């Protein structure tokens, strides 16, 4: 199991996510993002806007996503 923060995953806070795979941690981050969107959390909305800007260029988005995957894989197990 590995741990990454919301900020490490492109978000805006220090909430920690724990998962065995990158796909699992990405899903936990997405769920958290949806919760923060529903609350209209200003900091998270700004972070989401940055991600949406990346999504305008699929190659840039893929590169960003893969960098996060590599960051996760390089972490030591908890």
Written account of the structure:
The chain is globular. The chain has three helices and two strands. The chain has 78 residues and is mainly α. It is 62% helix and 10% strand. The chain has one domain (2-74). The chain has a two-stranded antiparallel sheet with strand order 1-2.
Give the topology.
Layout: E1 2-5, E2 16-19, H1 22-38, H2 42-55, H3 58-74
Antiparallel strand pairs: 1-2
Name some characteristics of this structure.
78 residues; two-stranded antiparallel sheet; 62% helix; mainly alpha
**Element order, helices and strands?**
EEHHH
- Uncertain runs with pLDDT below 50, 5 residues or more? none
Helix content: 55-70%
Q: Shape from CA axes?
A: globular
Rg, Cα atoms, Å: 12 Å
Give a count of the beta strands, DSSP E runs of length 2 or more.
Answer: 2
Across the major sheet, the strand order is 1-2
Give the rounded overall mean pLDDT.
96
Q: How many distinct helices? A: 3
Structural class: mainly alpha
- Domains, number: 1
Largest sheet report: 2 strands, antiparallel
Gap from first CA to last CA: 6 Å
Strand content: 5-15%
Task: Please sum up the structure shown.
This protein is about 60% helix and about 10% strand.
């Amino acid at each position: 199991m590995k741990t990454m923060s919301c900020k490490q995953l492109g978000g805006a806070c220090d909430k920690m996510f724990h998962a065995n795979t990158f796909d699992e941690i990405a899903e936990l981050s997405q769920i958290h993002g949806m919760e923060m969107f529903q609350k209209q959390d200003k900091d998270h909305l700004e972070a989401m806007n940055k991600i949406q800007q990346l999504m305008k260029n699929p190659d840039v988005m893929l590169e960003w996503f893969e960098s996060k995957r590599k960051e996760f894989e390089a972490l030591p197990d908890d």
